[in-house]
Write a structure and sequence with these properties.
Oligomer: heterodimer
Distance between the termini of chain A: 41 Å
Strand order of the largest sheet of chain B: 3-2-1-4-5-6
Largest interface: A-B, 61 and 72 residues
Helix content of chain B: 55-70%
Number of strands of chain A: 0
Number of helices of chain B: 12
Distance between the termini of chain B: 18 Å
Largest sheet of chain A: none
Shape of chain B: elongated
Order of helices and strands of chain A: HHHHHHHHH
Number of helices of chain A: 9
Number of strands of chain B: 6
Largest sheet of chain B: 6 strands, parallel
Structural class of chain A: mainly alpha
Strand content of chain A: under 5%
Order of helices and strands of chain B: HHHEHEHEHHEHEHEHHH
């Protein structure tokens, strides 16, 4: 058995301590709520320490940080499972109580079970979820290509209609700020497509001028996107990163406990 | 009695929907073939890939779903075509849960059919989908096998010839992510910033503005912004590789250039809506002031 330091430490931190804590928590419920804080503290500090301490047990390929990354992938899989359980619970409740829109839940659950079952069948039978050896699609792939992909694309396509309607009704030059936004938006929209070429298409004499105009408009669009937009985006990203870092510190130190689902500050 | 301006302002939105439908459907059915101008960010992306040598490895990640496939598919397929023409090897993965793998499989099948000499496992490999995108990226910096122990068919990657000598992202010359949402950003923050692998992103047009900050900071090699970026990239491909020009002219599949016609007409219509809507609004406001 490989008893390297990093592996043993991870075992103690994330296996022994939680088990001992749960066992003790049977008598002291307060301990149960504090235990995840300990786990979060170590899970948060190990990758940070690994950035600065170049020791093999910590930041090496088989070090604690790398192993935590692998665990995170596994935990993410369980999060997906949790989502599925949540969808099933909510859907079942809606159907059993005949709540508003319950037939949609029936469709949702049917889709979930049928697609899931075909996916599991593909894995168990080793035929996969892609193509069969003779080139035909597996049932899973047929559902995916014939139903899932077009349905999701259709929902998103509706945005074009609503955006056009919103542009007509809401995109108004009500004040100076809105007017600046309107002009910048209009220029970018015009510069991102060969608008002048489109307008000049029926008039061959104007083709050369339209091409030159498109070049100029394109350069202006590039400048708007590169300079004012790029500067503003940098500010937003830096601000959001600082906010995320401070939130991470609060979680690691146990100040922010909302993720425990206990409500309030505790 | 309502004036013309009042009637314009109160226009039933179903007329707008109808006009948008016509603006999208007609150019799609009857392409106009409008020209495309190229931007600096696309040229930088193209030039970098063009500078790769035969045998180099590129990581292509499908980080989008069917909702943005018309924008992202042409980018990913264009990249694969450029790599395969240049004999650059491609590792395909999908980190987007809602259909990323399905789109990867379909795009790969379409492009591979155009290059009959390609061999799976030697020229390209499909590692499939993995959940937990940010953690997967971090793990790829340590060991590809740690994140993807097998390919999409369940074959251990240690048995795949192409993966010999490609242990982690340090041996990968470029990551290209065709992305919607935040996964594209993670390739920059988790991979480029921490591992140093160059990244090119192909985001949807709606999320492209955010990435100009990364471009300006030198954290992105280049960017193909939305369908326009894809059309620009296709144009550059056709200029540099005549065999691809023939392919793009004859392909029955959707391309960025084909989509740009519909997008140009739709943009023109939306600009017209904005102008008419504002004209009517200003007139209406002036009339209201006169009345008061």
């Amino acid at each position: 058995m490989n008893l390297e330091f990093g592996r043993v430490t991870l075992f103690v931190l994330f296996m022994l301590i939680p088990i001992v804590g749960i066992a003790l928590g049977v008598r002291a419920p307060a301990l149960r709520s504090r235990l995840p804080l300990l786990v979060a503290f170590f899970a948060g500090t190990i990758p940070i320490l690994a950035m600065y301490i170049p020791k093999n047990f910590l930041s090496g390929p088989q070090g604690m940080s790398s192993r935590l990354d692998q665990w995170l992938i596994i935990v993410a899989g369980f999060a997906l499972l949790l989502g599925i359980v949540n969808v099933i619970q909510n859907g079942m409740r809606k159907v059993s109580r005949r709540e508003s829109g319950w037939p949609f839940s029936v469709v949702l659950l049917t889709g979930l079970f049928v697609t899931g079952a075909l996916g599991i069948y593909g894995a168990v039978s080793h035929q996969g979820i892609g193509f069969l050896p003779d080139g035909r699609s597996t049932p899973f792939k047929w559902i995916q290509d014939s139903m899932f992909l077009p349905l999701q694309a259709t929902i998103f396509s509706l945005l074009a209609f609503f955006m056009a309607s919103a542009a007509f009704r809401a995109f108004r030059a009500r004040n100076l700020e809105a007017t600046i936004l309107l002009i910048a938006g209009g220029l970018v929209m015009a510069g991102r497509v060969p608008l002048l070429d489109l307008l000049a298409a029926p008039f061959p004499a104007l083709h050369a001028s339209a091409a030159a105009g498109t070049q100029t408009l394109g350069k202006l669009t590039e400048w708007i996107m590169d300079t004012p937009n790029g500067a503003a985006q940098s500010g937003i990203i830096i601000g959001a990163a600082l906010g995320a870092a401070s939130m991470a510190i609060r979680v690691i130190l146990g100040i922010e406990r909302g993720y425990l689902g206990l409500g309030g500050g505790e | 009695m309502p004036t013309l301006m009042d009637r314009i302002l109160g226009l039933d939105r179903r007329w707008i929907f109808l006009l948008v439908l016509i603006a999208v459907v007609l150019p799609t059915l009857f392409p106009i073939g409008l020209p495309t101008t190229t931007t600096d960010s696309t040229r930088r992306a193209f030039d970098y890939i063009e500078s790769l040598k035969p045998g180099d490895v590129v990581w292509l990640s499908f980080d989008y779903g069917p909702s943005s496939a018309p924008e992202n598919d042409p980018m990913a397929e264009g990249l694969m075509r450029q790599c395969f023409v240049k004999h650059v090897r491609v590792i395909v993965s999908a980190l987007y849960p809602l259909g990323g793998l399905a789109l990867a499989n379909n795009s790969l099948a379409r492009v591979v059919a155009e290059f009959p000499n390609l061999k799976y496992g030697e020229d390209y490999v499909n590692l499939g989908y993995k959940d937990g995108a940010a953690a997967v990226m971090r793990q790829l910096g340590e060991s590809i096998g740690g994140a993807f122990p097998t390919d999409v068919n369940g074959k251990p990657i240690a048995e795949i010839p192409m993966m010999q000598g490609v242990h982690d992202l340090h041996q990968v010359k470029l990551v290209f992510t065709a992305a919607t949402g935040i996964i594209g950003e993670w390739w920059i923050t988790q991979v480029h910033a921490q591992i140093g692998t160059p990244v090119i992103i192909g985001p949807t047009a709606v999320s492209a503005p955010k990435y100009f900050a990364y471009l300006n900071a030198g954290q992105l090699v280049g960017m193909l912004g939305g369908m326009k970026g894809a059309a620009e990239y296709e144009k550059l491909l056709q200029v540099s590789h005549p065999e691809l020009a023939t392919l793009y002219r004859s392909t029955p599949h959707f391309t960025g250039a084909k989509g740009m016609d519909a997008q140009a007409v739709a943009h023109a219509l939306i600009i017209l809506f904005i102008v008419v809507g504002n004209f009517a609004y200003i007139q209406h406001r002036a009339a209201a002031r006169r009345r008061s």
